Amino acid sequence: MPDFINITPSHQRYDRVTWHNHYIFSYPVPTRMTKVTLVIASLLIIALIAGVGAQQAGLSNASGTNESSNQTTQSPQSTTGNVTDLTNAGDPLAATFENNKSLTNLAPIPSFTSVIGLELIGENFTAPMMVTSPDDGTGRLFVVDQIGVVRIVDVNGTELPEPFLDLRDKLVKLDPTYDERGLLSIAFHPNYRNNGKVYAFYSAPLRSEAPEGWSCTNHISEFQVDPETPDAVNMSSEKVLMYIDKPYENHNGGVLAFGPADGYLYISLGDGGKANDVGNGHTPGIGNAQDLTKIYGKILRIDVDSTATGVTIVQQNQTGNASANRTENPPEPTWTTFAGSLYGIPPDNPFAQDQPKILDSYAYKTVPQEIYAYGFRNPAYMAFDASDSNALYVAMAGQNLFESVLIVLNGGNYGWNIREGTHCFDPNAPTAPGESCNITGLQGEPLIGPIFEGGHDLGIVIVGGDVYRGNTVVGLQGRYIFGYWSDSRTVGNGTLLAATPPTGWAEGALPPTAAGLTPEDNAMWQTQIVSVAARNNETLGMFLRGFGEDANLDMYVLTSDVGGPDTSTSTGKIWKIVPPTLVNPALDAEALEVTPTVAAENQTGNVTGNSTTGG
């Protein structure tokens, strides 16, 4: 009777759905073996086990890398098999990591004079998040304040005494020193002039259906403005389209924006919070951002003008699970959506018609059909280019090292937490980039890298803006204007930046879906610091909190002297970007009179001043 060696590979993993790959190999081995025979047999066994690992379809291991052969080191773009590398790893314009520091590769353009003026438009806000204006012919500016109010500045520059929207009684209690929750954005319906509909993303107290001890429940709500009272929302008109429960206060995303070409509502959601996309409420091994069955770490797209879905919608229950609640590793992230009753699903959303074939890799069995793109840590800033390209730009805060600006396309996977920016990411060692990692996601789709990647030499936390299309500062046209929150945790000292697309880059040539994206489409942009004329150096001297546009596409900069939503302060200001000759002469004096503040450090060691950035 021959002896048998039973071998069970050690890489079997539990991913909240099922046990995978319980392979048991039995090989007949003679009772007496020579050393050579034993070595050969051992090599064969090792090779077979390695083959099993290669069949894992890219499932993430504990280190955050993937068990497939489709990996790259930090090298220039290449093609691996049939997959083109879109990560921009090793690009000369990508950030670098040297002496334990992340460094930005600035590339100033000699012909571009990057000096602007800032004209004070409004003040006495607490924590201004965004400025927007509906296409209703009134010329009004609507200023979103994180503490829960939206205020109107009329065409004459006068702030109206009563708020347009007041959600202060509906908000979760905010930490005045630092918080990422609150009223984070609003979006006017494209037909607002006629239907009076406006949408808001805000953080409410945790609802009873959510797991005990979690942070808050984010609401995506529709409100109505009655024609008789155009300067105030009808508060009784609220319809909550989504309830999204959060285990942690950070990484909310929080941006609403209507697509100028399709009229659909886009919603940015963070990965659930804390750090590294791991921990309570995060899918083990792959994280929420790569888990297609979870709503977190995604850009959603819905149709607020229809309840049609085109497919059978599985009603989500209170756990976000379309089947039975799985309790093996409680508590799971929870959410409730109302597709088919309060809104519809665009038929060309990537998972509206077909579900992925490897759902056993994920936490649940159904992919939310609202998903438009995925692989995001905290897409805290999102804006559409007003040109004919209608390109969607997202600025995403990094974990410890790298900040990103991304062009987001239908069905795209933007890499988190396999990558942080262009660099490999290991959640077990997040303070230094890994040597190698996948260039693809779990389905073999390419990971899409940023068009800008910044280090922390310029500051802490990226603050996204938009491509400048106004006529007030002609030299900025076609450039993406953005910045950093501050370079200090206690004193506001933000930086403005401008990114210029590569020569010959054609905005209108972007493909309709990520499947058609090429390295040329996703090439990195040259970036340089934008100076303010009245300042003696290249920083603002204030915390940079956000940007905004009016109906004429002129751009605004939002600042404050304190880093958190402290209602005892009113240092928030709105500035219009103007030519340097029109600068407000009071800017420099006011900017230098900053009030020190202690911005809370997040759980990764990063500090995030803009309440939506979430380090």
Q: Name the structural class.
A: mainly beta
What is the makeup of the main sheet?
8 strands, mixed
Q: Give the % helix.
A: under 10%
- What is the CATH class designation of the largest domain? Mainly Beta
Strand order of the largest sheet: 29-30-31-32-8-35-34-33
Shape: globular
How many angstroms does the end-to-end distance come to?
63 Å
> Mean of residue pLDDT?
83
* Percent of sequence in beta strands: 25-35%
Annotated CATH topology of the largest domain? Neuraminidase
Low-confidence stretches: 1-70, 72-79, 315-330, 589-614
CATH architectural group of the largest domain = 6 Propeller
> What is the CA-atom radius of gyration, in angstroms?
25 Å
**CATH homologous superfamily annotation of the largest domain:** TolB, C-terminal domain
